[in-house]
Amino acid sequence: MPPITFLAGIFATIATSAALPVPQPGEIPTFKDWAVGCDNIGNCEAVSLLAEEGGARFDDWGGPISIIRTAGKDDIFKIRVLFDGKGFDRYKMMVDNELVDTGPIVEGDYPIEIVGEDAKKVADAIIKGKRLVVQDPTGENITHISLAGSSAALRYIDQKQDRSGTDTALVAKGKRPFQATATQAPIIVVDQWETAKLVPEAGSLVALAEDSKCKEDRYGLVEDQAYPLGKRGDVYRALVLISCGAGAYNFSSAPYVGEYRKDDSAGWTFTPAKFDRQPSWGGEGNQPLLVNVSWNEQDQTLSSYGKGRGVGDCGSAENYVWDGDAFRLIDASAMNECRGAYEWITIWRAQYRKLDQATNTDK
Fold first, then answer.
1. Which residues are CB-neighbours of 165 under 8 A, at least 6 positions away?
2. Cα–Cα distance measured from residue 31 to residue 93, given in angstroms and rounded to the nearest whole number
3. Cα–Cα dist 345/342, whole Å
4. Cα 154 to Cα 38, 124, 318, distances in angstroms
5. Rounded to whole angstroms, how far apart are CA atoms 334 and 134?
6. In degrees, to the nearest 5, what angle opens at C-alpha 38 toward C-alphas 160 and 305?
7. Are 162 and 172 in contact (CB under 8 A)?
8. Which of 346, 76, 41, 88 lies closest to 182, judged by CA?
């Protein structure tokens, strides 16, 4: 790459990075037997939990119900039920023994999905009710949901989307017309380097691990990994994931960025990878830690998925994109309560474009 173009790419990336706010994922409050949260562009989701008192046990729990509403003028409204739909062709949804919806069970992640005005009618019954049961055609219960806290959770969505007192509110209803505000997801410009395959040799990874804070947490069979991040001129970079402890279902890794200059006798040098927001597993103020990590070499995206317990009904997950200098958060989801909610709530989302794509778009 000619020097002028090279410098222009660097300055474009720096300018874009400086303009981006530090990601601030939303909170997930709990109202009795429901959790709710919104992302940074105003889309919200409420998810049912196993009842704390006098409710269904796991034996009665086929899966949660989630209520999703977007903040924009499109006003997409969905109610989904997450369960194993095999063996059934239709369902009946009952609230306090009254039929509120029925229809076919379909293949896919969500065997039941109710949309639009039908979803709003069901939501109205949920707000007023105490118990919801989904049944198969024979009357057998598929899942049993407590509605305690559902009204407060949906009122929270009204508030977060500035619907309170408007004609579109679910709980805090009023006569004022709703004015949707256009909030766009942040756009991250990534400056990916020229493709290269050079990565540190095994001896360098062993030396890095021995000199890292992970040394005391490495036991049993460990596997360190290295992936190319590309080259620019005579400089090569690589992502290195050092094994940093493991439990029954979570495997931690410390991420580093290695750099090598051609014909440099010093060999590879390593620094902890930079993130625009600290991964949740490591905690603020500590060296970044990823859990159950995966790397997409083509898109240069990095994923971390930490389970609060083995069944996977709580925890946190983040996805990052490499922008040429640091890892930037492109989406995050979480579930704080370990109470049967396999549906985690999205609390941050961003888009990304490669530098050449962003330049073409701006012309």
1. 172, 173, 174, 175, 176
2. 23
3. 10
4. 11, 10, 25
5. 25
6. 165
7. no
8. 41
Q: What's the token pair of residue 41? A: 């562009």
Quick one: tokens of 326? 């640091």
What residue ranges define each of the domains in the chain, with the CATH number in brackets?
Answer: 3-23+186-362 (no CATH), 30-160 (2.60.40.1880)
Q: Which amino acid is at 98?
A: E
User: What is this structure's pTM?
Assistant: 0.89
Q: Give, for all 363 residues of the chain, the pLDDT tens digit.
A: 333 332 333 333 333 444 456 899 999 999 999 999 999 999 999 999 999 875 556 677 888 999 999 998 889 999 999 988 778 899 999 999 999 999 999 988 899 999 999 999 999 999 999 999 999 999 999 999 999 999 999 999 999 999 999 999 999 999 999 998 878 999 999 999 999 999 999 999 999 999 998 988 887 667 899 999 999 999 999 999 999 988 888 999 999 999 999 887 889 999 999 999 989 876 666 789 999 999 999 999 999 999 999 999 999 999 999 999 999 999 999 999 999 998 899 999 999 999 876 555 544
Residue tagged 């997950």 (tokens): 317
